[in-house]
Amino acid sequence: MNVTSSLSDNYKDGIFAIHFSTESCDGKNVLVELIDKKTGNTVFERKQQLQGGSSTVESTIQNVAKWTAETPNLYTLRATLMDGDKVLEVIRQNVGFRKIEIKGKQLLVNGQPVLIKGVNRHEIDPDGGYVVSVENMIRDIKVAKQLNINAIRTSHYPNDPRWYDLCDEYGIYVMAEANLESHGMGFAKETLAKNELFNKTHLERNMHNVKVLKNHPCIIMWSLGNEAGYGKNFEDAYDWVKAYDSSRPVQYEMACSTGKHTFQNITDETVNKKAKRLIAAGITPILCIGETEAQYDAGETEKVIRDQLTGSIADLDAKDVANMVIAYEPIWGIGTGKSATKEDAQNCCAIVRDQVKVMYGQEAADSVRVQYGGSVKPGNIVEYMACPDIDGALIGGASLKADSFMEIIEKTK
Fold first, then answer.
1. Is the model's pTM score more than 0.85?
2. Is the link from the previous residue into 156 a cis peptide, with omega within 30 of 0?
3. Per-residue pLDDT of the chain (413 residues; tens, 9 = 90+)
4. Which residues, 6 or more positions from 111, have their beta carbon under 8 angstroms from its beta carbon?
Protein backbone atom coordinates (compact mmCIF):
# COMPACT_ATOMS: atom_id res chain seq x y z
CA MET A 1 0.00 0.00 0.00
CA ASN A 2 1.62 3.19 -1.18
CA VAL A 3 0.06 6.44 0.06
CA THR A 4 0.58 9.89 -1.45
CA SER A 5 -0.54 12.77 0.78
CA SER A 6 0.87 16.00 -0.61
CA LEU A 7 -0.50 19.48 -1.19
CA SER A 8 -1.62 21.49 -4.18
CA ASP A 9 0.60 24.25 -5.54
CA ASN A 10 -1.16 26.80 -3.34
CA TYR A 11 -0.62 24.56 -0.28
CA LYS A 12 -4.36 24.62 0.42
CA ASP A 13 -5.87 21.37 -0.83
CA GLY A 14 -4.70 17.83 -0.17
CA ILE A 15 -3.51 15.63 -3.03
CA PHE A 16 -4.50 12.14 -1.96
CA ALA A 17 -3.67 8.90 -3.76
CA ILE A 18 -3.34 5.32 -2.61
CA HIS A 19 -2.02 2.45 -4.70
CA PHE A 20 -2.71 -1.17 -3.78
CA SER A 21 -0.68 -4.08 -5.04
CA THR A 22 -1.79 -7.52 -3.89
CA GLU A 23 -1.49 -11.21 -4.63
CA SER A 24 -4.48 -13.53 -5.23
CA CYS A 25 -6.98 -10.68 -4.79
CA ASP A 26 -8.08 -10.09 -8.37
CA GLY A 27 -11.75 -9.14 -8.50
CA LYS A 28 -12.04 -8.37 -4.82
CA ASN A 29 -12.97 -4.91 -3.56
CA VAL A 30 -11.14 -2.44 -1.37
CA LEU A 31 -12.99 0.18 0.66
CA VAL A 32 -10.95 3.34 1.32
CA GLU A 33 -12.00 5.71 4.10
CA LEU A 34 -10.16 8.85 5.22
CA ILE A 35 -11.22 10.11 8.64
CA ASP A 36 -10.25 13.41 10.28
CA LYS A 37 -8.77 12.42 13.66
CA LYS A 38 -9.85 15.65 15.36
CA THR A 39 -13.47 15.72 14.28
CA GLY A 40 -14.09 12.05 13.53
CA ASN A 41 -15.66 13.08 10.22
CA THR A 42 -15.11 10.94 7.13
CA VAL A 43 -13.74 13.29 4.46
CA PHE A 44 -13.36 10.67 1.75
CA GLU A 45 -14.86 7.26 1.04
CA ARG A 46 -14.73 5.04 -2.02
CA LYS A 47 -15.03 1.35 -2.85
CA GLN A 48 -13.04 0.11 -5.82
CA GLN A 49 -12.40 -3.26 -7.43
CA LEU A 50 -8.90 -4.72 -7.67
CA GLN A 51 -8.07 -5.62 -11.25
CA GLY A 52 -4.97 -7.68 -11.89
CA GLY A 53 -4.35 -7.53 -8.15
CA SER A 54 -3.85 -3.76 -8.11
CA SER A 55 -5.81 -0.55 -7.93
CA THR A 56 -5.23 3.18 -7.51
CA VAL A 57 -7.61 5.55 -5.72
CA GLU A 58 -7.12 9.30 -6.18
CA SER A 59 -8.85 12.41 -4.92
CA THR A 60 -8.39 16.04 -3.87
CA ILE A 61 -9.33 16.92 -0.29
CA GLN A 62 -10.50 20.53 -0.10
CA ASN A 63 -9.06 22.83 2.59
CA VAL A 64 -7.11 20.03 4.18
CA ALA A 65 -5.68 20.32 7.71
CA LYS A 66 -1.91 20.38 7.09
CA TRP A 67 0.75 18.41 8.98
CA THR A 68 3.91 20.03 10.41
CA ALA A 69 5.99 19.36 13.50
CA GLU A 70 4.18 22.28 15.19
CA THR A 71 0.70 21.31 13.96
CA PRO A 72 0.69 17.52 13.50
CA ASN A 73 -2.81 17.27 12.04
CA LEU A 74 -3.54 13.67 11.11
CA TYR A 75 -6.15 11.70 9.25
CA THR A 76 -6.76 7.98 9.69
CA LEU A 77 -6.72 5.93 6.51
CA ARG A 78 -8.77 2.77 6.82
CA ALA A 79 -8.38 0.36 3.92
CA THR A 80 -10.67 -2.67 4.01
CA LEU A 81 -10.19 -5.63 1.68
CA MET A 82 -13.53 -7.30 0.97
CA ASP A 83 -14.83 -10.37 -0.82
CA GLY A 84 -18.45 -9.41 -1.36
CA ASP A 85 -19.69 -8.45 2.10
CA LYS A 86 -16.99 -10.44 3.87
CA VAL A 87 -14.13 -8.43 5.43
CA LEU A 88 -10.78 -10.10 4.69
CA GLU A 89 -8.34 -7.57 6.09
CA VAL A 90 -8.29 -4.04 7.51
CA ILE A 91 -5.21 -1.78 7.46
CA ARG A 92 -5.02 1.51 9.33
CA GLN A 93 -2.40 4.14 8.54
CA ASN A 94 -1.65 7.68 9.72
CA VAL A 95 -1.97 10.18 6.90
CA GLY A 96 -0.59 13.71 7.12
CA PHE A 97 -0.85 16.18 4.28
CA ARG A 98 2.40 18.10 3.81
CA LYS A 99 4.74 19.05 1.00
CA ILE A 100 8.54 18.89 1.30
CA GLU A 101 10.60 21.03 -1.07
CA ILE A 102 14.03 22.57 -1.42
CA LYS A 103 13.95 25.93 -3.17
CA GLY A 104 16.86 28.34 -3.30
CA LYS A 105 18.83 25.99 -1.00
CA GLN A 106 16.09 26.41 1.64
CA LEU A 107 14.17 23.48 3.09
CA LEU A 108 10.46 24.21 2.93
CA VAL A 109 7.56 22.44 4.61
CA ASN A 110 4.22 23.44 3.12
CA GLY A 111 5.92 26.37 1.40
CA GLN A 112 7.39 27.76 4.64
CA PRO A 113 11.12 27.78 5.52
CA VAL A 114 12.00 25.44 8.36
CA LEU A 115 14.95 25.73 10.72
CA ILE A 116 16.02 22.23 11.66
CA LYS A 117 16.98 21.86 15.31
CA GLY A 118 17.83 18.19 15.27
CA VAL A 119 19.64 15.42 17.10
CA ASN A 120 20.71 11.84 16.50
CA ARG A 121 18.79 9.23 18.46
CA HIS A 122 20.05 5.73 19.07
CA GLU A 123 17.39 3.19 19.94
CA ILE A 124 18.58 2.38 23.45
CA ASP A 125 17.08 2.59 26.91
CA PRO A 126 18.88 3.12 30.25
CA ASP A 127 16.90 0.27 31.80
CA GLY A 128 15.79 -1.93 28.92
CA GLY A 129 18.94 -1.73 26.82
CA TYR A 130 17.96 -2.34 23.20
CA VAL A 131 14.31 -2.82 24.17
CA VAL A 132 12.61 0.59 24.35
CA SER A 133 9.06 0.76 25.63
CA VAL A 134 6.42 2.94 24.04
CA GLU A 135 6.28 4.94 27.27
CA ASN A 136 9.99 5.73 27.01
CA MET A 137 9.66 6.58 23.33
CA ILE A 138 7.02 9.12 24.30
CA ARG A 139 9.32 10.39 27.05
CA ASP A 140 12.09 10.93 24.48
CA ILE A 141 9.74 12.91 22.26
CA LYS A 142 8.48 15.03 25.14
CA VAL A 143 12.01 15.81 26.30
CA ALA A 144 12.92 16.75 22.72
CA LYS A 145 9.94 19.08 22.55
CA GLN A 146 10.85 20.68 25.89
CA LEU A 147 14.36 21.35 24.56
CA ASN A 148 13.00 22.93 21.36
CA ILE A 149 14.19 20.01 19.22
CA ASN A 150 12.01 19.52 16.15
CA ALA A 151 13.92 16.86 14.18
CA ILE A 152 15.46 13.46 14.90
CA ARG A 153 17.72 11.26 12.79
CA THR A 154 17.24 7.52 13.33
CA SER A 155 20.93 6.88 13.66
CA HIS A 156 21.97 4.55 12.21
CA TYR A 157 19.20 2.11 11.32
CA PRO A 158 15.42 1.90 10.98
CA ASN A 159 13.68 2.08 14.36
CA ASP A 160 10.77 0.28 15.98
CA PRO A 161 7.73 0.91 13.70
CA ARG A 162 5.86 2.42 16.65
CA TRP A 163 8.44 5.21 16.85
CA TYR A 164 7.35 6.61 13.49
CA ASP A 165 3.67 6.43 14.50
CA LEU A 166 4.51 8.52 17.58
CA CYS A 167 6.49 11.05 15.54
CA ASP A 168 3.48 11.34 13.22
CA GLU A 169 1.24 11.95 16.22
CA TYR A 170 3.39 14.28 18.32
CA GLY A 171 5.05 16.15 15.45
CA ILE A 172 8.73 15.37 14.92
CA TYR A 173 10.55 15.75 11.60
CA VAL A 174 12.41 12.51 10.94
CA MET A 175 15.47 11.77 8.84
CA ALA A 176 14.96 8.05 8.24
CA GLU A 177 18.32 6.31 7.92
CA ALA A 178 19.02 2.94 6.35
CA ASN A 179 20.91 0.25 8.25
CA LEU A 180 24.17 0.75 6.41
CA GLU A 181 27.49 1.50 8.06
CA SER A 182 30.81 -0.11 7.18
CA HIS A 183 33.42 2.40 8.31
CA GLY A 184 35.50 -0.37 9.88
CA MET A 185 36.32 -1.52 6.34
CA GLY A 186 37.78 1.88 5.41
CA PHE A 187 36.70 5.00 3.56
CA ALA A 188 39.07 5.24 0.58
CA LYS A 189 39.69 2.71 -2.18
CA GLU A 190 38.94 -0.19 0.18
CA THR A 191 35.42 1.04 1.00
CA LEU A 192 32.60 -1.43 0.37
CA ALA A 193 30.78 1.39 -1.43
CA LYS A 194 33.16 0.80 -4.36
CA ASN A 195 33.01 -3.02 -4.16
CA GLU A 196 30.65 -4.50 -6.75
CA LEU A 197 30.12 -7.59 -4.58
CA PHE A 198 28.27 -5.36 -2.06
CA ASN A 199 26.17 -3.41 -4.56
CA LYS A 200 23.04 -5.44 -3.86
CA THR A 201 23.56 -5.04 -0.12
CA HIS A 202 23.58 -1.24 -0.41
CA LEU A 203 20.48 -1.32 -2.60
CA GLU A 204 18.45 -3.79 -0.57
CA ARG A 205 18.96 -2.04 2.76
CA ASN A 206 17.77 1.25 1.30
CA MET A 207 14.89 -0.39 -0.56
CA HIS A 208 13.69 -2.02 2.66
CA ASN A 209 13.95 1.25 4.59
CA VAL A 210 11.93 3.22 2.04
CA LYS A 211 9.30 0.62 1.17
CA VAL A 212 8.43 -0.12 4.78
CA LEU A 213 8.32 3.48 6.05
CA LYS A 214 7.29 5.53 3.02
CA ASN A 215 3.74 6.32 4.21
CA HIS A 216 4.74 8.20 7.37
CA PRO A 217 4.25 11.99 7.16
CA CYS A 218 6.89 12.57 9.84
CA ILE A 219 9.63 11.39 7.47
CA ILE A 220 10.79 14.41 5.52
CA MET A 221 14.15 13.05 4.34
CA TRP A 222 15.85 9.74 3.59
CA SER A 223 19.43 8.96 4.64
CA LEU A 224 21.32 6.31 2.67
CA GLY A 225 23.48 5.34 5.65
CA ASN A 226 26.32 6.51 7.84
CA GLU A 227 30.12 6.49 7.57
CA ALA A 228 30.49 3.84 4.88
CA GLY A 229 32.77 5.52 2.36
CA TYR A 230 31.57 6.67 -1.01
CA GLY A 231 31.22 4.96 -4.36
CA LYS A 232 28.94 3.68 -7.10
CA ASN A 233 26.93 1.54 -4.70
CA PHE A 234 25.63 4.65 -2.95
CA GLU A 235 24.96 6.37 -6.24
CA ASP A 236 22.87 3.39 -7.35
CA ALA A 237 21.01 3.45 -4.04
CA TYR A 238 20.35 7.18 -4.46
CA ASP A 239 19.00 6.65 -7.97
CA TRP A 240 16.64 3.91 -6.78
CA VAL A 241 15.30 5.94 -3.84
CA LYS A 242 14.70 9.06 -5.96
CA ALA A 243 12.97 6.99 -8.66
CA TYR A 244 10.72 5.32 -6.09
CA ASP A 245 10.00 8.42 -3.99
CA SER A 246 10.62 11.81 -5.58
CA SER A 247 8.70 13.64 -2.84
CA ARG A 248 11.56 13.74 -0.31
CA PRO A 249 15.21 14.85 -0.33
CA VAL A 250 17.87 12.16 0.01
CA GLN A 251 21.14 12.69 1.88
CA TYR A 252 24.29 10.76 2.62
CA GLU A 253 26.91 12.41 4.78
CA MET A 254 29.96 11.01 3.00
CA ALA A 255 28.92 12.47 -0.34
CA CYS A 256 30.24 15.73 1.14
CA SER A 257 32.82 16.61 -1.49
CA THR A 258 32.24 14.08 -4.26
CA GLY A 259 29.39 12.30 -5.92
CA LYS A 260 25.86 13.36 -6.81
CA HIS A 261 24.89 16.77 -5.51
CA THR A 262 21.74 18.73 -6.05
CA PHE A 263 23.57 21.85 -4.94
CA GLN A 264 27.10 23.20 -4.77
CA ASN A 265 29.73 21.47 -2.69
CA ILE A 266 30.68 22.98 0.64
CA THR A 267 33.59 25.38 0.20
CA ASP A 268 35.77 27.45 2.53
CA GLU A 269 33.64 30.42 1.49
CA THR A 270 30.37 28.78 2.58
CA VAL A 271 31.97 27.74 5.87
CA ASN A 272 33.03 31.36 6.35
CA LYS A 273 29.46 32.52 5.81
CA LYS A 274 28.19 30.00 8.36
CA ALA A 275 30.78 31.13 10.90
CA LYS A 276 29.73 34.76 10.46
CA ARG A 277 26.06 33.87 10.97
CA LEU A 278 26.83 31.91 14.11
CA ILE A 279 28.92 34.73 15.54
CA ALA A 280 26.19 37.26 14.73
CA ALA A 281 23.72 35.04 16.61
CA GLY A 282 26.00 34.89 19.66
CA ILE A 283 26.96 31.25 19.07
CA THR A 284 30.58 30.08 19.31
CA PRO A 285 31.59 28.23 16.14
CA ILE A 286 33.55 24.99 16.30
CA LEU A 287 35.48 24.88 13.04
CA CYS A 288 36.76 21.46 11.97
CA ILE A 289 39.56 21.27 9.44
CA GLY A 290 41.72 18.46 8.14
CA GLU A 291 43.20 16.69 5.17
CA THR A 292 42.17 13.60 3.21
CA GLU A 293 44.29 10.48 3.05
CA ALA A 294 45.50 11.39 -0.45
CA GLN A 295 46.55 14.86 0.72
CA TYR A 296 48.29 13.36 3.74
CA ASP A 297 50.19 10.84 1.61
CA ALA A 298 51.22 13.62 -0.79
CA GLY A 299 52.71 15.69 2.03
CA GLU A 300 50.14 18.49 1.58
CA THR A 301 48.89 18.63 5.18
CA GLU A 302 50.27 22.09 6.06
CA LYS A 303 49.11 23.65 2.79
CA VAL A 304 45.61 22.21 3.23
CA ILE A 305 45.31 23.48 6.82
CA ARG A 306 46.51 26.98 5.95
CA ASP A 307 44.31 27.19 2.83
CA GLN A 308 41.23 26.02 4.73
CA LEU A 309 41.78 28.58 7.47
CA THR A 310 42.57 31.38 5.03
CA GLY A 311 39.15 30.95 3.46
CA SER A 312 37.01 29.89 6.40
CA ILE A 313 38.03 32.54 8.98
CA ALA A 314 38.54 35.43 6.57
CA ASP A 315 37.16 38.91 7.34
CA LEU A 316 36.26 38.20 10.96
CA ASP A 317 36.90 40.35 13.99
CA ALA A 318 40.07 39.30 15.85
CA LYS A 319 38.19 38.98 19.15
CA ASP A 320 35.66 36.65 17.53
CA VAL A 321 38.46 34.46 16.18
CA ALA A 322 40.05 34.45 19.63
CA ASN A 323 36.78 33.04 21.04
CA MET A 324 36.45 30.31 18.42
CA VAL A 325 37.25 26.62 18.73
CA ILE A 326 39.30 25.20 15.85
CA ALA A 327 39.65 21.44 15.71
CA TYR A 328 42.22 19.64 13.61
CA GLU A 329 40.38 16.49 12.56
CA PRO A 330 42.27 14.41 10.00
CA ILE A 331 39.70 13.07 7.56
CA TRP A 332 41.81 9.97 7.00
CA GLY A 333 41.33 9.04 10.67
CA ILE A 334 37.53 9.29 10.85
CA GLY A 335 36.08 5.88 11.53
CA THR A 336 39.24 4.05 10.43
CA GLY A 337 40.85 3.50 13.82
CA LYS A 338 43.92 5.39 12.59
CA SER A 339 45.17 8.38 14.52
CA ALA A 340 47.92 10.94 14.21
CA THR A 341 50.96 10.53 16.41
CA LYS A 342 51.25 13.08 19.19
CA GLU A 343 54.07 14.71 17.18
CA ASP A 344 51.87 15.01 14.06
CA ALA A 345 48.91 16.24 16.09
CA GLN A 346 51.04 18.86 17.84
CA ASN A 347 52.57 19.96 14.56
CA CYS A 348 49.17 20.41 12.90
CA CYS A 349 47.69 22.26 15.85
CA ALA A 350 50.78 24.51 15.88
CA ILE A 351 50.16 25.25 12.18
CA VAL A 352 46.59 26.22 13.05
CA ARG A 353 47.76 28.60 15.75
CA ASP A 354 50.44 30.09 13.51
CA GLN A 355 47.94 30.73 10.70
CA VAL A 356 45.65 32.52 13.15
CA LYS A 357 48.69 34.61 14.17
CA VAL A 358 49.44 35.44 10.52
CA MET A 359 45.85 36.55 9.94
CA TYR A 360 44.87 38.13 13.27
CA GLY A 361 47.94 38.60 15.43
CA GLN A 362 49.59 37.03 18.46
CA GLU A 363 46.83 37.81 20.95
CA ALA A 364 44.19 35.97 18.88
CA ALA A 365 46.60 33.07 18.34
CA ASP A 366 47.24 32.76 22.07
CA SER A 367 43.52 32.87 22.92
CA VAL A 368 41.97 30.65 20.25
CA ARG A 369 41.22 27.14 21.51
CA VAL A 370 42.80 24.51 19.29
CA GLN A 371 41.64 20.93 19.66
CA TYR A 372 42.70 17.58 18.28
CA GLY A 373 39.82 15.58 16.82
CA GLY A 374 41.41 12.24 16.03
CA SER A 375 40.94 8.90 17.78
CA VAL A 376 41.40 9.95 21.39
CA LYS A 377 41.29 7.17 23.96
CA PRO A 378 42.15 6.71 27.65
CA GLY A 379 45.50 5.28 26.61
CA ASN A 380 46.65 8.33 24.62
CA ILE A 381 44.76 11.33 25.99
CA VAL A 382 47.53 12.30 28.44
CA GLU A 383 50.25 12.50 25.78
CA TYR A 384 48.05 14.56 23.48
CA MET A 385 47.08 16.99 26.23
CA ALA A 386 50.72 17.45 27.16
CA CYS A 387 51.39 19.04 23.75
CA PRO A 388 51.77 22.84 24.01
CA ASP A 389 49.39 23.72 21.17
CA ILE A 390 46.61 21.22 21.94
CA ASP A 391 44.00 22.75 24.25
CA GLY A 392 41.44 19.97 24.15
CA ALA A 393 40.08 17.03 22.21
CA LEU A 394 36.94 15.93 20.40
CA ILE A 395 35.95 12.52 21.77
CA GLY A 396 34.44 10.08 19.30
CA GLY A 397 33.96 6.35 19.79
CA ALA A 398 35.48 6.39 23.28
CA SER A 399 32.50 8.44 24.49
CA LEU A 400 30.11 5.55 23.77
CA LYS A 401 31.43 3.65 26.78
CA ALA A 402 30.83 5.45 30.06
CA ASP A 403 33.86 3.93 31.79
CA SER A 404 36.33 4.93 29.09
CA PHE A 405 34.79 8.39 28.77
CA MET A 406 35.05 8.97 32.51
CA GLU A 407 38.63 7.72 32.45
CA ILE A 408 39.47 10.33 29.79
CA ILE A 409 37.87 13.03 31.91
CA GLU A 410 39.76 11.96 35.02
CA LYS A 411 43.09 11.92 33.16
CA THR A 412 42.59 15.44 31.87
CA LYS A 413 41.85 17.04 35.22
1. no
2. yes
3. 889 899 999 999 999 998 888 877 888 889 999 999 999 999 999 998 888 778 888 899 999 999 999 999 999 999 999 988 899 999 999 999 999 999 888 899 999 999 999 999 999 888 888 899 999 999 999 999 999 999 999 998 999 999 999 999 999 999 999 999 987 887 777 889 889 999 999 999 999 999 999 999 999 999 999 988 888 899 999 999 999 999 999 999 877 655 555 444 578 888 899 999 999 988 999 998 888 777 888 889 999 999 999 999 999 999 999 999 999 988 776 655 567 888 989 999 999 999 999 999 999 999 999 999 877 788 888 988 999 999 988 887 777 778 888 888 888 87
4. 11, 99, 101
Q: β-strand 286-289 against 250-251: which pairing, if any?
A: unpaired
For 56-77, b where at least 16 C-beta lie within 10 A, e where not — what string?
ebebebeebbbbbbeebbbbeb
Longest CA–CA separation in the chain, Å: 85
Strands, sheet with 100-103, edge to edge from the N-terminal-most edge strand: 100-103, 106-109, 112-113
Phi, psi of 269 (to 5 degrees): -65, -45
